[in-house]
Design a protein that fits this description.
Elements (H helix, E strand, L loop, with lengths): L11 H12 L4 H15 L4 E8 L3 E8 L10 E3 L3 H9 L3 E3 L21 E9 L2 E10 L7 H21 L4 H8 L6 E4 L1 E4 L2 E8 L14 H25 L7 H13 L2 H12 L4 H18 L3 H5 L1 H16 L12 E5 L4 H5 L6 E6 L7 H9 L3 E3 L4 H4 L5 E5 L4 E4 L3 H23 L14 E6 L2 H4 L2 H4 L4 E5 L1 H5 L7 H15 L4 E4 L27 H6 L1 H14 L4 E6 L5 H20 L7 E8 L8 H4 L5 E5 H9 L17 H17 L3 E4 L6 H9 L4 E4 L4 H8 L4 H11 L8 H10 L5
Parallel strand pairs: 9-10, 10-11, 11-12, 15-16, 15-22, 16-17, 17-18, 18-19, 19-20, 20-21, 21-22
Antiparallel strand pairs: 1-2, 1-6, 2-3, 4-5, 5-6, 7-14, 8-12, 9-13, 13-14
């Protein structure tokens, strides 16, 4: 009997035989030997082998039909070793005409596999964790088709659920994990939302064991699915209503998008199709989830891959309704840190925000839906924390340092106390800063400093009054594009920009045109990735190559800015001619707008973001053609020192507080003053008191930063005298040191400058 490819259910007869074998009595080895024999026959393969992940990330040959019997429980491959190890490390299937020519091929003489050439292997996945590999081999150089790959994936999914349900593996692996449980540890991560939180670790459990894979009654399973979907929709509606976050920001759009995702007919149609192929409702949900994981995992666009978290959230929510269990535990600690591989936005709302102190994820990114919700709730969050789930035990005390991008596991009492003191100090400082938020940011010698906020979410603008920002120095227009599933048309963009200007009131807003490409991808943007994204096709380069897209955005900005003060900034400008081309498109749209009876902006200012060093040698030509310039310190620093800011090996090799960068910033400030062009700086430097102190000393008097940092910078500004600071920074910029951080901190201490 050959397995019939092309449908998720594969051969119902084969799946039933697998179920009966796994549930039958007798020795496990006998049952597994029979299983690989059945699968090998169905795939018309001379060899079928099952490898299981053991403690220490070692794959052990558990059963085979075709390889030598003595290799069973003797042949072992480390994760990443050989083709089997490669499949396990990537979690993706691999089909090869001639496996022995593959660079990862690892020959094991005890197996006798030298006579076999073609190979198809698929991972056994359980809760997104690889628990083994299923592989078939043939003597001929066979080409395995997509249908055959899909059929074997279906079998592997069913087999993984059966193995997990039977408890065949896990005890030894648990002992291995427990060996690190008592030791303190520090894990690096990426900041998704700043802040510090401490508490007991609560693992977001999703491991729902599916004990019945094959349906006895198709109609009954379809009925169970419909009932569970209805219950899920009702529960979701109640959940989202209970957690009304207020406002009309992107967090609201995220939740509405999530609600529509839950009602997507394509998703529910695939579930019904899987049930009709012979699976239970639970197995159908798991199979569709596994299939979507593979499809999204192969997508190059990171935003599309991140949307898998939303789908996984829905799938596990539906599984709980099928099982009839509660959505969350009631006996959670008063101070908890939520730990998960990934989270959907509604899953975060399942937890009581009064108890939730922080969130730590193995996956995630700043543009993920759950990160947007966390920012709206004010919950510290980190992501891309490697080995998180392998190192954390339920109940472990954890400290999440959102600003520092780290998780501290089981810290010593002295470390706990230090962070508790830091939280208390932060609370006192925030109270003091709030008391000063209406006061001007004037130095002690009478110089006014403009403190502006960076924004990308409407929720950021709602904080302007809370922190006393004087305006928006950088509105990242790409962020609303990144949380949508399709490109917003002109009407949608007009609505976004109008709401931004309304919330800002009389305060100025600088709109940066789309800075997409590089590490900022759109879910509907299917362009080929650059080998070096930071230096690739991005920002103004895309806008000029796709002028219709840029013109639509400029049109929306002009309509939203009618009768108001409108500031438009073009990013990643490398030569003045790029600015002239972009300005020409803006002029065309303005002329079109006026011809159609639209009102002109009360004041229109055009500027550039200076982040490419080549533009520095064009300042005499640039300054007469712009109304303002904003330094993008993040990219300028990266390009100036030829470093990848995301490379952990280089993260601390170069310091922004170094004489070369300070000399450059002093030069830019002087040239801007000489040409009477307003100069500001936006980037990470502006939001940290010590770095901001250096910027003021360089002559830059307009700083744009995250809203929450404005208060601390205001306190620092009001405690200093600018004239002597500029003299000292001029001296420091002439030193040969790799960093002047220590010198500047000592100066601040000597002059009682609040840092």
């Amino acid at each position: 009997m050959a397995l019939q490819p092309g449908s998720w259910g594969g051969s119902r007869r084969l799946l039933r035989q697998l179920r009966d074998l796994m549930q039958s009595g007798g020795q496990w080895q006998d049952r597994l030997d029979a299983v690989v024999g059945l699968i090998g026959d169905a795939m018309v393969a001379e060899v079928c082998s099952l490898y299981v992940m053991r403690a220490g990330e070692v794959l052990e040959l558990f059963a085979t039909r075709g390889l030598r019997r003595e290799a069973v429980h003797r042949t072992r491959l480390r994760l990443g070793e050989g083709i089997i190890g490669d499949i396990a490390s990537t979690g993706r299937p691999l089909a090869l005409q001639d496996a022995q020519r593959h660079p990862n091929f690892a020959y094991r003489p005890e197996t006798g596999e030298e006579i076999y050439h073609s190979m198809l292997g698929v991972p056994l996945l359980r809760d997104r964790r690889v628990i083994g590999v299923l592989a078939v081999q043939n003597k001929t150089r066979r080409t395995y088709g997509e249908d055959e790959v899909e059929a074997l994936e279906t079998v592997s999914m069913v087999l993984a659920e059966m193995i997990s349900a039977a408890g065949l593996i896990g005890e030894e692996e648990g002992r291995h994990r427990d060996s690190l449980a008592s030791l303190p540890a520090r894990l690096s991560a990426v900041t998704l939302n700043e802040g510090i939180g401490m508490g007991a670790a609560v693992l977001h459990e999703r491991d729902i064991v599916i004990r019945h894979v094959l349906a006895e009654d198709i109609d009954l399973e379809l009925g169970r699915l419909e009932a569970a979907i209805t219950e899920m929709h009702e529960a979701l509606a109640e959940l989202l209503e209970r957690h009304d976050l207020g406002g009309d920001g992107e967090h609201t759009e995220v939740l509405e998008t999530y609600r529509m995702f839950a009602e997507d007919r394509g998703w529910t149609g695939r579930l019904r199709e899987a049930i009709r192929s012979g699976l239970t409702a639970e197995a159908a949900v798991q199979l569709v989830l596994t299939d979507m994981r593979q499809r999204m995992g192969r997508a190059r666009d990171p935003y599309i891959r991140e949307r898998y978290a939303d789908l996984e959230d829905l799938a596990n929510r539906l599984q709980r309704h099928l099982a009839g269990g509660p959505a969350t535990e009631d006996d959670l600690p008063e101070d908890m840190v939520l730990v998960a591989r990934s989270l959907g936005p509604a899953e975060l709302l399942d937890y009581d925000p009064r108890r939730l102190r922080a969130v730590a994820l193995e996956d995630g990114s700043p543009t993920s839906h759950v990160a947007i919700i966390a920012r709206a709730l004010g919950i510290p969050m980190i992501g891309r924390c490697r080995e998180l789930l392998a190192r954390v035990q339920p109940g472990d005390f954890m400290i999440i340092d959102g600003g520092g991008g780290q998780a501290l596991l089981r810290p010593r009492q002295s470390v706990r106390q230090n962070f508790a003191d830091a939280i208390a100090l932060r609370n006192r400082r925030q109270a003091a800063q709030a008391a000063l938020r209406t006061l001007p940011a004037d130095t002690r010698d009478g110089e006014n400093i403009a403190l502006l906020a960076n924004a990308g979410l409407l929720a950021d603008l709602e904080q302007l009054d809370d922190f006393g920002a004087q305006g928006i120095g950088l509105y990242r227009t790409e962020v609303p594009f990144m949380v949508r599933e399709s490109f917003p048309d002109v009407a949608e963009q007009i609505d976004i920009y109008s709401r931004v200007l309304d919330l800002a009131g009389e305060r100025p807003v600088t709109f940066r045109t789309l800075d997409i490409g590089g590490d900022k991808a759109l879910p509907y943007w299917n362009e080929q990735l650059d080998e070096n994204p930071a230096l690739g096709w991005r920002a103004i380069r895309i806008g000029l190559d796709r002028p219709a897209m840029l013109r639509q955005q400029l049109r929306a900005l002009l309509i939203a800015g009618a009768g108001r003060h409108l500031r438009v900034m073009f990013p990643m400008v490398s030569e003045v001619n790029e600015l002239l081309q972009a300005r020409a498109l803006l002029d065309l749209e303005l002329e079109r707008h006026l011809q159609r009876g639209g009102a002109a902006p009360a004041r229109l200012e055009v500027g550039v973001m200076l982040e490419v060093p080549a533009l520095i040698w064009q300042l005499p030509v640039l300054f007469p053609r712009v109304d303002f310039v904003s330094i993008g310190s993040n990219d300028l620093f990266q390009f100036l020192f030829a470093i990848d800011r995301g490379n952990p090996r280089l993260a601390r090799r170069y310091d922004v507080l170094c004489p070369p960068l300070l000399s450059l910033l002093r030069f830019l400030a002087e040239e801007a003053r000489r040409h009477r062009v307003p100069l500001s700086l936006c980037g990470e430097m502006a939001g940290h008191p010590l770095e901001a102190l250096a910027l003021l000393g360089c002559g830059i008097k307009s700083l744009s930063m995250p809203p929450g940092n404005v208060g601390a910078i205001r306190v620092m500004v009001r405690s200093l005298e600018l004239a002597p600071l500029k003299e000292y920074v001029t001296y420091l910029s002439g030193l040969a040191n790799s960093s002047i951080r220590g010198h500047l901190r000592a100066y601040a201490l000597d002059h009682e400058i609040a840092l």
